Structure formats: structure tokens, C-alpha cells
């Protein structure tokens, strides 16, 4: 009987695995088409400096609207894009669209905001990443100080020497560098000193419980203090409540992003948001020098 059951289980699992593989293949196929047919859209989420109460930047977040399946979340398709190499054309599309959009806002007369673009692991190791970024900046005419790349600890740590080289190349061009989801990856804090990082983004999982969990409060407080002593900017992600905002501000975290301020929105809605907050726009600190 045990044998029967075992076999049943085996069949069950293998069917499940099969289905996952099919899902993945189907998703890969759909993704290829989506790239050809440009079924993607970039959304933008504002980032605020709550010390000076100014809008300092936006994060670009990809959205895939499939004609039949509807909205597919990046959490689902970015990993598939990574595994299949499709992240290359997709990542290039994101970078170009984000840079062109931010440049367009400048051309329309808005004070400049910075745009954060997420870079995944395989994308970061692309041999021609720097070249691609150079080309996109030249094509769109965006000043590099308005582009911030959001990188994650896990892949930065994989090969510290080549990481350093890539980051230095980017930094020389004046591109801003941020560590996304800070605190969740494989953290050797030592790298913060050696890599030319400008900003860390406190992961939203810590921010979520910051007013209810002593541990998360302690972690967030420690991250803010450490960023301060290393002279790194620090931004809290996933701020949803006034209580979280108050806690963060009291601990010295100036910059924030989250549903409390606004959800990610399409470019045209973001234009209206910029219009509404026109007198709250300012040139990012590091860009100031170049603009004066
Ligand atoms: P991330 O870069 O850490 O982005 C933050 C995620 O948190 C976004 O989810 C955003 O919509 C969401 N978020 C923002 N504020 C709040 C809040 O107050 N509460 C909660 N619960 N969530 C909030 P999204 O857009 O689904 O993106 C998920 C992840 O997918 C991103 O995490 C990023 O790692 C990746 N991703 C998104 N767009 C791109 C892209 O263009 N390229 C690459 N390589 N990855 C991307
Ligand atoms: Mg991000
Ligand atoms: Mg994040
Ligand atoms: Mg992330």
C-alpha cells in the first residue's frame, strides 16, 4: 500500500513539475512575443526627501500587460527573462525608456528628477553593459547624474573584483549607484567601503514592521546610523503609514518611497504628479555642482 501511495506521490510530483516546466516554457514563449510587440509599460514611483520636503526622484518599475492574461508581475517574469537571456533586450528597453522619459520631462520644463532603474544579476554581468548605458545616455541626451542604477548585494558579492571594475566604470561617468533591498542579501558590510556606492535602499520587509517589531526597528535604526557614518544616502522603501514615516524621520532617514506617498503610476499620470508638485521639485544634491 505504501508503494502504491509512493507511486501516486511520484506521479503527482512529476505532473506538477511538468506543469511548471510547461508554464515556464509558455511564459518564455509569451515573453519573446511581448518583446517583439512591446507589450511593456514603465511605471514610476516618486521618492521624497522628507527633511526638505522635496521630490528627488522616481523609480522605474516595469509592467507587462499581456493581451489575454492581463497584468503579469515583474516578480514572475523577470526571473524567466534572466534564465533565458531575454533580460538583455528587456533591460535595454527599460533603460532607454526611463532615460528618454526623464529627459522629456526636463525638456518640458520640469526641474530635473533622478530616475532609478533596476538592474538584475545577469544584466549587471553583461560584458557590454557600460557601453550600452553610454549609448543610451548619448541617444537620449540625459545627464548621467540623473540616472541611478539599483543593484542588489547578492550578485555584487559574487565576484568582488569584477564588480569593483564595473562600478568604477559607471561611477566615472557620473551615474548614481544604489543598493536595492538592503539587508536581505548576503551582506559583507565591508563592501560598502570599497564599492563606490551612493545610496542604500532599506528593504521594505524591515520597514513593514518597524513600528510593531523591536527587532526590525533596531535593524532599521542600525542601517540608518551606518549609512550616516559611511556618508551614504539612505532611502526607506515600502513606507505605507504615517507612523512608519514618523519613526524613520525621527531616526534620521530623510528619503522615503512607498504607497503612503504614491503607488507606481504610468508616465502620463506621473507628469500630472510632477505638475502638482512643481514647487517641490529640486535638483538632486550630487547634480547641483554640475548645474550651477
Ligand atoms: P524593487 O526594485 O525592490 O521594487 C519595489 C517594489 O515594491 C515594487 O514592486 C513596488 O511596486 C513595490 N512597492 C512600492 N511601494 C510599496 C509599498 O508601500 N508597499 C508595498 N507592499 N509595496 C511597495 P514591483 O513593481 O512589483 O517590482 C518587484 C520587483 O521586480 C522589484 O523590486 C525589482 O526587483 C523587479 N523589477 C521591477 N521592474 C524592473 C525592471 O525594470 N528591471 C528589473 N531588472 N527588475 C525589475
Ligand atoms: Mg528597486
Ligand atoms: Mg527593493
Ligand atoms: Mg529588488
Describe the structure.
The protein is built from 13 helices and 10 strands. Strands 1-2-4-5-6-7-8-9 form an 8-stranded mixed beta barrel, surrounded by 4 helices. Helix 1 (2-37) crosses helix 2 (74-84) and helix 3 packs parallel to helix 5. It has 292 residues and is of the alpha/beta class. It has helices spanning 2-37, 74-84, 87-107, 121-124, 129-140, 153-158, 160-172, 191-194, 204-208, 214-229, 242-250, 267-276, 285-291; strands at residues 40-49, 54-66, 70-72, 114-118, 147-152, 176-182, 199-202, 233-236, 255-256, 265-266. The protein binds ligand C2E and magnesium ion (3 copies). Residues 152, 180-181 line the site of one magnesium ion. Ligand C2E binds at residues 45, 61-62, 73-75, 78, 91, 94, 118-120, 150, 180-181, 204, 237-240, 258-259, 264.
SSE blueprint and pairings:
Blueprint: H1 2-37, E1 40-49, E2 54-66, E3 70-72, H2 74-84, H3 87-107, E4 114-118, H4 121-124, H5 129-140, E5 147-152, H6 153-158, H7 160-172, E6 176-182, H8 191-194, E7 199-202, H9 204-208, H10 214-229, E8 233-236, H11 242-250, E9 255-256, E10 265-266, H12 267-276, H13 285-291
Helix pairs in contact: 1-2, 3-5
This protein binds ligand C2E and magnesium ion (MG) (3 copies).
Radius of gyration: 21 Å
Question: What's the number of extended β-strand segments?
Answer: 10
The spatial strand order of the largest sheet comes to: 1-2-4-5-6-7-8-9
Helix-strand pattern: HEEEHHEHHEHHEHEHHEHEEHH
Helical segment tally? 13
Q: Biggest β-sheet, characterized?
A: 8 strands, mixed, barrel
Integer average pLDDT: 90
Bound molecules: ligand C2E, magnesium ion
- The helix content, as a percent range, equals 40-55%
Poorly predicted ranges: 1-6, 287-292
Q: Given the helix and strand composition, which structural class is it? A: alpha/beta
| Amount of beta strand | 15-25%
Question: Can you tell me the overall shape?
Answer: globular
Distance between the termini: 81 Å
Organism: Geothermobacter ehrlichii
Protein name: PAS domain S-box-containing protein/diguanylate cyclase (GGDEF)-like protein
Domain EAL: 24-278
